[in-house]
């Protein structure tokens, strides 16, 4: 009897562990044909099913890998989807994902636009759409050079947030268009390389008028490690901007001089300068430095229900404002490096023709006495 009970216990334990592990194991979900993100397929109609073409029971969630790769069909998202592991667009077959107004797509790991199979992947983030990438953004990632095409479009009003690297054109051909906002909060930029050292595919990034490409970090052009490999480029148009936190003027200048930064289609035709970034907490007078002058502002406004600038929303001015000022004493405003289209005015002033120089000289002689009398 003891042996039977022990055997039953072991079997039940094994079944429990198997069920538990399968419920937490990664499943691969594939969208059948095209349609709305929220649809689930019965094996014949459009919607999510288990890879490669089985009926589905749910939309991607948890540790799931989601694949959009059914003959170039489009999957649209116009609501906040459940968070899932990673998204692959274009796996052996082409696919398109469009995050529309009201759509929020969030992954804990990578989003790959153009994965493999000599095909292409496309992602469009429309106005009002948001994509949150928990790790790496890949565009045109394939096992061999020239394998795939990847197209990422962030339209005006669309937002694309990335927590780690931008690996675009790592082996394939990546085309990225930014009219909205891209925010990179970790990692580094890598265009046209599989690992920042070996030249891979190519990436063309167009930051269009009104677009913001807010990067986290870049390599300099010294040595083999480069953030923009030869054959790749960033082209800034109109009022588009590329920004980096900190002073990257020299590093970006080296990419400009190498012809890898373009302005309105012209290599090197960009302006690189720094501007004040975010003001520190406790900078109550907004001059970029937390010092004794901010204490004076605090003292003169104790009891004010309107609060103070850069107080973190503390409300009525009181002891918490003093604590904030004290904790941040000496803090200075951050520096932001900004790249825009067009050369600095001093660089684009045309050299005068010789005849003009003669005329200017004559005018100078005639005007000389008058100027001296002033």
Describe the structure.
- Strand 23 (261-263) and strand 24 form a beta hairpin.
- Residues 1-24 and 347-374 have low confidence and may be disordered.
- The protein has two domains: 24-276; 292-327, no CATH class.
- With 374 residues, it is an alpha/beta fold.
- The protein has helices spanning 2-24, 249-257, 292-300, 319-327, 345-348, 354-373, and strands at 28-32, 35-36, 47-50, 65-68, 74-77, 86-91, 95-99, 104-106, 111-116, 120-125, 130-133, 137-139, 149-154, 159-162, 166-168, 173-178, 181-184, 189-191, 202-207, 212-214, 233-236, 241-245, 261-263, 266-267, 270-276, 335-341.
- The chain is built from six helices and 26 strands.
- It has a ten-stranded mixed β-sheet with strand order 2-5-7-10-13-16-19-21-23-24. It has an eight-stranded mixed β-sheet with strand order 3-1-4-6-9-12-15-18, with no helix packed on it.
- The N and C termini lie far apart (119 Å).
- This is PEP-CTERM protein-sorting domain-containing protein.
- Residues 1-25 form the signal peptide.
- InterPro entries: EF_Hand_1_Ca_BS.
- Keywords: Signal.
């Amino acid at each position: 009897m003891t042996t039977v009970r022990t055997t039953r216990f072991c079997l039940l334990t094994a079944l429990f562990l198997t069920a538990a592990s399968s419920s937490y194991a990664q499943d691969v979900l594939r969208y059948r044909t095209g349609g709305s993100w929220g649809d689930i397929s019965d094996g014949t109609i459009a919607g999510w099913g288990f890879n490669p073409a089985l009926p589905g029971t749910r939309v991607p969630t948890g540790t799931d890998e989601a694949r959009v790769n059914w003959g170039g069909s489009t999957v649209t998202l116009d609501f906040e989807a459940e968070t899932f592991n990673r998204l692959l667009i274009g796996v052996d077959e082409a696919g398109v994902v469009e995050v529309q107004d009201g759509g929020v797509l969030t992954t804990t790991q990578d989003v790959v636009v153009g994965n493999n199979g000599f095909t292409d992947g496309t992602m469009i983030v429309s106005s009002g759409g948001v994509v949150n990438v928990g790790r790496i953004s890949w565009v045109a990632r394939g096992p061999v050079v020239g394998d795939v095409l990847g197209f990422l479009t962030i339209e005006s009003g669309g937002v694309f947030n990335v927590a780690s690297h931008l690996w675009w054109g790592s082996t394939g051909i990546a085309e990225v268009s930014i009219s909205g906002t891209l925010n990179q909060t970790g990692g580094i930029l890598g265009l046209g390389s599989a690992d920042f050292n070996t030249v891979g595919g190519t990436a063309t990034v167009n930051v269009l008028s009104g677009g913001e490409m807010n990067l986290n970090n870049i390599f300099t052009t010294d040595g083999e490690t480069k953030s923009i490999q030869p054959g790749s480029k960033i082209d800034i148009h109109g009022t588009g901007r590329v920004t980096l936190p900190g002073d990257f003027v020299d590093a970006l200048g080296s990419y400009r001089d190498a012809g890898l930064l373009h302005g309105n289609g012209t290599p090197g035709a960009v302006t690189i300068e720094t501007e004040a970034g975010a003001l520190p907490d406790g900078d109550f007078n907004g001059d970029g430095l937390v010092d004794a002058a901010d204490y004076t502002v605090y003292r003169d406004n104790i009891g004010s229900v309107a609060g103070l600038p850069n107080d973190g929303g503390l409300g009525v001015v009181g002891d918490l404002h003093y604590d904030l000022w004290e904790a941040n004493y000496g803090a200075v405003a951050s520096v932001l490096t900004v790249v825009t289209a067009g050369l600095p005015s001093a660089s684009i002033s045309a050299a005068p023709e010789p005849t003009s120089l003669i005329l200017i000289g004559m005018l100078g002689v005639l005007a000389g006495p008058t100027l001296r009398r002033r």
